[in-house]
Design a protein that fits this description.
The protein has 322 residues and is of the alpha/beta class. It has two domains: 22-246, P-loop containing nucleotide triphosphate hydrolases (Rossmann fold, 3-Layer(aba) Sandwich); 261-320, Orthogonal Bundle (Arc Repressor Mutant, subunit A). The protein is 32% helix and 19% strand. The chain has helices spanning 44-57, 82-96, 118-131, 152-169, 188-191, 197-201, 267-277, 284-291, 295-308, and strands spanning 22-24, 28-29, 33-38, 73-77, 105-107, 135-139, 172-178, 204-211, 214-221, 230-233, 244-245, 311-314, 317-320.
Length: 322
């Protein structure tokens, strides 16, 4: 029996790795597979469509994040009717300053697509082989199979199949997925429903959380630094149906543009402003005094921020994760 090939560590190539290339700058790496996750009704599908329109048009995603090399997009929307998909794409294209007729975007119109069946896997692969998309969007994962999502042995082959599509046809894969119930205090990847294989699989992952009318978007990458969290909101009535970035949603300061403490009005805003303005950890007693709120309220806010991963508790006090 032949042995596996060996190489001395000193003889390994010393060339620096190639620079990270982006499909959508800072949001999705080129040829990345990954998850766009979130609870129901938090804008997951709208964000997936915004990314699809950006890649197909070459226009900035969310009107901010550049697409260097646009290309064809394949989209399968399993939960929405085709007229609803058309309406949403029209709205996003309008907000982006383009039209559907200008987009290199194709919608898979099959009534069902089951990635746990050999027939449908073959049909999807043949479609990708012929279309050669830059991006394949599948929304949502739960409608693409009848397996046990909690069983790693059942989930891994499906994810392995999608990874093979990426490597064989050089296409990025964006998989929309739900988070589990009662996971509001877990970090994005930990909150995903089903096996931990889903979180580990992603090269680029996006996580949406909803607080009232505000959406909070967390970004993570396997091989690149992540953005600070972004805040999004749904459009006003009468405006095109597309998400937009806001720097101070509902008065809440975004991590990269913090309002002064004097401008914050709610307890959550005052706590965040005080922490963001501090260059060193802030003790609980100092936070309570500066924010003028009860200890029980302050602890509840700090626990929520710590669970989200935006604030870290140290021996000296609390500090923003920058």
């Amino acid at each position: 029996m032949s042995r596996l090939p060996l190489c001395r560590a000193r003889d390994l190539a010393a060339d620096s790795p190639p620079p990270r290339r982006w499909l959508v700058e800072s949001l999705w790496a080129e040829r990345a597979v990954g998850i766009l996750g979130g609870e129901p009704k938090c804008g997951k599908s709208l964000l997936a469509l915004d990314i699809a329109v950006a890649v197909a048009s070459g226009l900035p995603c969310l009107r901010r994040f550049a697409v260097e090399k646009p290309g064809r997009v394949l989209l399968y929307a399993a939960e929405d009717s085709l007229p609803v998909v058309r309406e949403r794409l029209d709205g996003i294209a309008s907000a982006a300053g383009t039209t559907l007729s200008a987009l290199d975007l194709f919608v898979i119109t099959a009534a069902t697509l089951r990635l746990d069946t050999e027939t449908d896997r073959g049909r999807l692969e043949e479609t990708v082989r012929q279309a050669r998309p830059r991006l394949l969007v599948l929304d949502p994962f739960v409608r693409l199979h009848a397996i046990d999502e909690n069983a790693a042995g059942e989930v891994a082959p499906l994810l392995g199949y999608l990874r093979r599509l990426e490597r064989t046809y050089e296409t990025a894969v964006l998989l929309v997925h739900h988070v589990r119930k009662g996971a509001a205090k877990l970090r994005g990847g930990q909150a995903l429903r089903g096996s931990s294989e889903l979180h580990a699989w992603g090269d680029s992952n996006l996580y949406l959380r909803r607080r009232g009318d505000t959406l909070r978007l967390a970004v993570e990458h396997r091989a690149a630094a992540a953005l600070n969290d972004l805040f999004l909101r749904f459009p006003a009535p009468g405006q095109p149906l597309s998400l937009e970035i806001v720097d101070e949603p509902g008065g809440e300061p975004a991590p990269d543009r913090v309002a002064p403490a004097s401008a914050a009005t709610t307890p959550d805003q005052r706590v965040w402003a005080a922490l963001a303005a501090a260059s060193t950890p802030v003790a609980l007693s100092d936070l309570r005094q500066s924010c003028r709120i009860r200890t029980s309220t302050l602890c509840a806010i700090l626990n929520a921020l710590t669970a989200e991963g935006t604030v870290r508790k140290t021996a000296a006090g609390y500090t923003v994760v920058r």
